[in-house]
From TrEMBL:
It comes from Sphingomonas humi. PROSITE patterns: ACYL_COA_DH_1, ACYL_COA_DH_2. Residues 229-377 form the Acyl-CoA dehydrogenase/oxidase C-terminal domain. Belongs to the acyl-CoA dehydrogenase family. Residues 122-217 form the Acyl-CoA oxidase/dehydrogenase middle domain. This is Acyl-CoA dehydrogenase family protein. Keywords: FAD, Flavoprotein, Oxidoreductase.
Length: 377
């Protein structure tokens, strides 16, 4: 269980909320999700009933009107439990796009369902030939009467199999570069919208990740999200919270890996004493504990900055870089301290290690994070 007693970021109401989140997370059948490659809708509905989805959504749209600390609690607890459920994508990313840029009609139609768990959402940026470089996307929406015709494909889309609504990034001009990108709302059942296979990944087996295809999908004018040709600026404005959200998940998973290593090495015997009693083990864990201590302090600082509206894109990139690298180091070190057992899927560290590999890639690779940080120097 995560120890939050020393964190001044949270207050009594947050502790009560965390207890609720822990109870709901404990009901998740992670083994089933790993086997089936998707999280059942009932899990989303339970989270919605508990107030865990999109807690920052204002009450007028069915939410609780809380701040990002509540989102962080959900992400921490789900990640610490080793679950790949895609709640944070809906709460930390998609909801904010609709809140910030959606029309009143779009907000009223989708936000209450997202809060309750009745609607599952995704955002489609990445393409087979355009990942971290969003300016290279080829998916295009051309004017057609009072609406649009959307054509192209996306890949590596989290929640792609289950999503009822997908925010799709597309070109609305033939020009290259950042200009002429717009965002559209694509719904399940739209003619010409199809899903490809549920992609076979190294880790995060419990979360569906898909290819999406758009074959001249007819979209009425009210499916445009925000301003035409204003999509790139919208994406850039929202990326800091997305990267902070990833940092939150990474830190919690790193802590879980450390806790598992401590538990295992104290229990396992070798050469007549516990593995923990060897100096190498204790020094390795001591080093990791120091890095985790710094990580929690930095994470809480970043969240406070974000709550005050002061977290810069470079700071968010640094948080994503630091915590994703820490997560993999913690998981790899913990697996090593498990010895052969760590390579067995029956031990939780094996899943944590597999799942950790992608966090240095999605949301912008570590290399891209370094480039963004360097630009601010």
């Amino acid at each position: 269980m995560l120890d939050t007693s020393s964190r001044s970021l949270f207050e009594g109401e947050h502790d009560a909320f965390r207890d609720t989140v822990r109870r709901v997370v404990a009901t998740l059948d992670t083994d089933r999700h790993e086997r089936e490659g998707i999280v059942e809708r009932e899990a989303w509905l339970r989270a919605g009933e508990a107030g865990m989805l999109c807690p920052t959504v204002p009450e007028e749209y069915g939410g609780l009107g809380l701040d990002f600390r509540f989102n962080a609690i959900v992400s921490e607890e789900a990640s610490y439990a080793g679950s790949a459920v895609g709640w944070s994508l809906q709460s930390d990313i998609v909801a904010d796009y609709i809140l910030a840029y959606g029309s009143e009609e779009q907000k009223k139609k989708w936000l209450p369902k997202m809060v309750s768990g009745e609607a599952i959402t995704a955002i489609a940026m990445t393409e087979p030939g355009a990942g971290s470089d969003l300016q290279g996307m080829k998916t295009i929406a051309r004017k057609s009467g009072n609406g649009w015709k959307l054509s192209g494909s996306k890949t590596y889309i989290t929640n792609g199999q289950a999503a009822d609504l997908v925010i799709v990034c597309a070109r609305t001009t033939e020009d290259g570069g950042a200009r002429g990108i717009s965002l559209f709302l694509v719904e399940t059942g739209d003619e010409g919208f199809t899903r490809g296979r549920n992609l076979d990944k190294i880790g995060l087996h419990g979360n569906d990740t898909s290819e999406l295809f758009f074959d001249e999908v007819p979209l009425p004018g009210d499916r445009l999200l925000g301003a035409e040709n204003g999509g790139f600026a919208m994406l850039m404005n929202q990326l800091p919270q997305e990267r902070l959200s990833i940092a939150v998940q990474c830190q919690a998973a790193a802590q879980r890996a450390f806790d598992l290593a401590v538990e295992f090495t104290k229990d396992r015997k070798a050469f007549g004493k516990s593995v923990f009693d060897f100096q190498n083990t204790r020094f390795t864990l001591a080093d990791l504990k120091a890095r985790l201590q710094v990580g929690w302090a930095h994470l809480d600082w970043a969240i406070q900055r974000h709550l005050a509206g002061e977290l810069t894109p470079a700071e968010a990139s640094a948080a994503k870089l630091f915590h994703s690298e820490l997560q993999f180091a913690a998981c790899d070190t913990s697996l090593q301290l498990h010895g052969g057992a760590g390579y067995m899927n029956e031990y939780p560290i094996a899943r944590l290690w597999r799942d950790a590999r992608v966090t240095r890639i999605y949301g912008g690779t570590s290399e891209i994070m370094k480039e963004l940080i360097a630009r601010s120097i």
